[in-house]
UniProtKB/TrEMBL annotation:
Transmembrane segments: none annotated. It is an enzyme of class 1 (oxidoreductase). This is Superoxide dismutase [cu-zn], putative. Residues 3-44 form the Superoxide dismutase copper/zinc binding domain. Keywords: Oxidoreductase. Its EC number is 1.15.1.1. GO terms for molecular function: metal ion binding; superoxide dismutase activity. It comes from the Eukaryota. InterPro entries: SOD-like_Cu/Zn_dom_sf, SOD_Cu_Zn_dom.
Amino acid sequence: MPPHVGDLGNINADVTGKARVYISDGMISLIGHHNIIGRALVVRTH
């Protein structure tokens, strides 16, 4: 199944729980009619 818009993949944290993240995505936009401004960011753990 292909990823949906907004599926940014996995983020791995170090032993202290900190993570550095750089995300580049060609499907998400900060401008235009379908931008993500004002939407929720959901982070969950497995």
